[in-house]
Design brief:
Blueprint: H1 3-16, H2 23-34, H3 49-63, H4 68-72, E1 74-77, E2 80-83, H5 96-106, E3 112-117, H6 123-131, E4 135-141, H7 144-156, E5 164-168, H8 176-181, E6 186-191, H9 206-209, H10 214-217, H11 227-237, E7 238-247, H12 251-263, E8 267-273, E9 279-285
Parallel strand pairs: 3-4, 3-6, 4-5, 6-7
Antiparallel strand pairs: 1-2, 7-9, 8-9
Helix pairs in contact: 2-3, 5-6
This protein binds S-adenosylmethionine (SAM).
């Protein structure tokens, strides 16, 4: 069977089994198996029986709703590839606007120190550090397993160890200010905290609710349980005029975050839309 027929045949099988897939997804799996870039998959690429068997094993996982990036263990985000596992949220392309805005604001500054609440795979803080070699950063996460993935990604992006400190702690811990004071003050805080309303989690796609960690999704009864604390800590840890960029679920949540920020005398500078034109990020200033 030539490679295009193989792709069409396996895609038909996935779609017939109710999996929302595409030829590109199958190409990602084949590229992983063949050790080539997806764009180099063409009809003259040869594939042997063993490689077809490997593909079919991976497709068994896909039939159980496992997302492609978790099957191959990596996901492209912004300009870089990130190792992912069941312990981290799969980086979403909608989060790239947060990274782009942070880099735009930080690029003119000679040296800056940033803080991320909830690093997960590290896709946000590591993309910033990889693009801007004069930036140092601190990443916080409650999940030790997630921090181990951030560490792997930091190494593969060749971020010098003295530029990044990772702390395993909850932002609700009483001693977090004390722990972070060792690295403060910060020029910028970035965060994509959990923001799904608890009662909405059951309605998410199976790829998300079964394979992203619950701790990365669950934002409590109104989806906002973490924003108050993150803003309270940012007020204490940022330099005067320091900037905060937060991702949220939609414009309604962003308006509520703006009200919470008001409580800490933090002003809204701008709202950013994602690729689907949904209000996604808020930029605030201390
Ligand atoms: C939505 S994920 C974002 C991950 C990554 N920054 C990204 O954008 O793909 C939120 C992260 O916050 C972490 N987290 C959730 N609650 C936390 C808490 N109370 N303290 C510290 N980290 C927490 C989770 O473990 C998860 O890695």
């Amino acid at each position: 069977m030539n490679i295009n027929d193989l792709i069409n045949d396996r895609l038909k099988m996935l779609l017939q089994n109710g999996i929302d897939s595409s030829a590109f997804e199958i190409k990602l799996l084949l590229a992983h198996i063949l050790g080539i870039e997806p764009k180099n998959i063409s009809p003259n690429v040869e594939i042997n029986e063993h490689q077809v068997a490997l593909l079919d094993n991976m497709l068994k996982e896909r039939l159980a709703y496992r997302p492609i990036d978790k099957i191959i263990g990596k996901k492209g985000f912004y300009k870089y590839d990130f190792v992912v596992s069941d312990d981290v949220l799969s980086p979403r392309c909608d989060t790239e606007i947060l990274v782009e805005k942070a880099i735009e604001l930080l690029a003119p500054i000679k040296s800056a120190n940033i803080l991320e609440f909830g690093v997960g795979s590290g896709c946000i803080i590591l993309s910033i550090l990889a693009d801007l070699p004069c930036i140092t950063g601190v990443g916080v996460d409650i999940s030790e397993a997630a921090l181990a993935i951030t560490d792997i990604n930091a190494e593969s992006l060749k971020i010098e160890p003295n530029r990044l400190n990772l702390l395993k702690t909850s932002w609700f811990d009483e001693d977090i200010i004390e722990k972070l004071s060792n690295y403060a003050p910060f020029d910028m805080v970035v965060s994509n905290p959990p923001y799904i309303i608890t009662s909405e989690i059951a309605k998410l796609d199976r790829e998300v609710k079964e394979f992203d960690p619950l701790i990365a999704l669950d934002g409590g009864i109104d989806g906002l349980k973490d924003y108050d604390r993150i803003l309270q800590l940012s007020q204490k840890l940022l330099k005067p005029n320091g900037v905060i960029i937060l991702e949220a679920g939609d414009g309604q949540q962003l308006r509520q975050i703006e009200q919470i920020a008001d409580k800490y005398k933090i002003k809204c500078l701008n709202i950013l839309k994602d690729l689907n034109n949904i209000d996604r990020c808020i930029i605030l200033k201390k």
